[in-house]
Amino acid sequence: MGTHSAVLPDMSTPLSSSASSGLVRSIDAASAPASLGLRHGRFEDAQALFTGSLFVSITMMLFAQAGLLTGSTAGVAFLLHYVTGLPFGAIFFVINLPFYWFAWKRMGAEFTIKTFVSVAMLALMADVGPRFIHIDYLNPLYAAVAGGLLMGSGCLFLARHHSSLGGATIVSLYLQDRYGIRAGKVQMMIDCTVVLLALAIVPFDRVAYSVLAAVIMSMFLWISHRPGRYQGN
């Protein structure tokens, strides 16, 4: 995985993941009466889910070109893509399937359906995106910083509209909703663990940049994604 062309020749990146929007409608507000939260219209939800998925797909392309990777199920999908050569988007979509049952039981139908749509859009954008954009030179430090912030912004868009990018994000948002544990903390631990497991495959310097990106994204969510911030608005 020394060069981006060898790692992800036909896809946008791993995501992490990879996995997903401080909350105009926080995940913890999802369990509160509808009257206590700020509700969004269908058009607002649609544009937020599309924009969030797009931001994360751009991060995938940056990571792919810089030879970086990410955490969560996207990171697992990236490693499987590297080992098998199968399209990242397809692997990412399939890996997330088992998590929908948990999401349906714990987070509700609306969250699960929106998450399914977001994951499907990201999977498609990740595989199709490189056909529309290419960067001739990309410093890995820049990719880590910009990618971490873009991914954090994309996940924040999704969470504010009661969605996620599946996998570990579902678990982290559930723990925030149920036990008040910041989603950013959980996501940071999961992402860094997945990235560190890639040491056997990815050069150390790329792993270090990938950890930096995971920390930046998680710190962004930790600061911005606070339970109950928008309740009562």
UniProtKB/TrEMBL annotation:
<keyword id="KW-1133">Transmembrane helix</keyword>
<dbReference type="InterPro" id="IPR003740">
    <property type="entry name" value="YitT"/>
</dbReference>
<keyword id="KW-0472">Membrane</keyword>
<feature type="transmembrane region" description="Helical">
    <location>
        <begin position="48"/>
        <end position="68"/>
    </location>
</feature>
<feature type="transmembrane region" description="Helical">
    <location>
        <begin position="179"/>
        <end position="201"/>
    </location>
</feature>
<keyword id="KW-0812">Transmembrane</keyword>
<feature type="transmembrane region" description="Helical">
    <location>
        <begin position="115"/>
        <end position="135"/>
    </location>
</feature>
<dbReference type="InterPro" id="IPR051461">
    <property type="entry name" value="UPF0750_membrane"/>
</dbReference>
<keyword id="KW-1003">Cell membrane</keyword>
<feature type="transmembrane region" description="Helical">
    <location>
        <begin position="207"/>
        <end position="224"/>
    </location>
</feature>
<dbReference type="Pfam" id="PF02588">
    <property type="entry name" value="YitT_membrane"/>
</dbReference>
<protein>
    <submittedName>
        <fullName>YitT family protein</fullName>
    </submittedName>
</protein>
<feature type="transmembrane region" description="Helical">
    <location>
        <begin position="80"/>
        <end position="103"/>
    </location>
</feature>
<feature type="transmembrane region" description="Helical">
    <location>
        <begin position="141"/>
        <end position="159"/>
    </location>
</feature>
